[in-house]
Structure to design on (169 residues):
């Protein structure tokens, strides 16, 4: 009987821990932020051109990075809205870090937009499809900045493709 009691304790402890995290936990062992927690936001991702061999071509993805793509983070809540612009660098990578003025918005109220490709020949949105929906923010980690806590988010890859396959120039 004593052995049965110990087994029940071992089995129920992880369940209690999971429930105390709201039933959700990230792969890194940290719970995602609650929807109503306010903090500054950092957003990162990469803009690519699918099927074109520009400088930096990455064979496993069959894609090349697109430097110079305009990106912007847009947060809205009711009538309040704020836009933070950014641009992809030489490897197609972008990082937008917001200031404390964004702390009145939650991550669910923000989306990232990449309205067009900087490369005319590779201008058709491929993934995710569509131009106006914006990309949702996916929580990665909390980063301690000198002026407070920042939630670092990723939007992953934004792919464009040529209108006519094989015509990249």
């Amino acid at each position: 009987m004593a052995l049965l009691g110990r087994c029940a304790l071992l089995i129920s402890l992880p369940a209690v821990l999971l429930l105390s995290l709201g039933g959700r936990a990230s792969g890194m062992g940290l719970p995602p932020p609650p929807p109503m927690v306010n903090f500054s936001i950092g957003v990162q991702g990469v803009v690519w051109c699918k099927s074109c061999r520009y400088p930096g071509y990455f064979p496993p993805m069959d894609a090349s990075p697109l430097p110079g793509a305009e990106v912007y983070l847009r947060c809205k809540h009711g009538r309040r809205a704020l836009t933070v612009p950014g641009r992809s660098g030489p490897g197609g990578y972008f990082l937008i870090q917001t200031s404390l003025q964004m702390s009145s918005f939650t991550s669910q109220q923000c989306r990232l937009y990449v309205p067009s490709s900087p490369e005319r020949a590779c201008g058709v949105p491929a993934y995710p499809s569509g131009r106006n929906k914006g990309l949702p923010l996916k929580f990665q980690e909390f980063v301690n900045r000198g002026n407070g806590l920042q939630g670092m988010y990723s939007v992953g890859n934004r792919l464009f493709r040529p209108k006519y396959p094989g015509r990249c120039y």
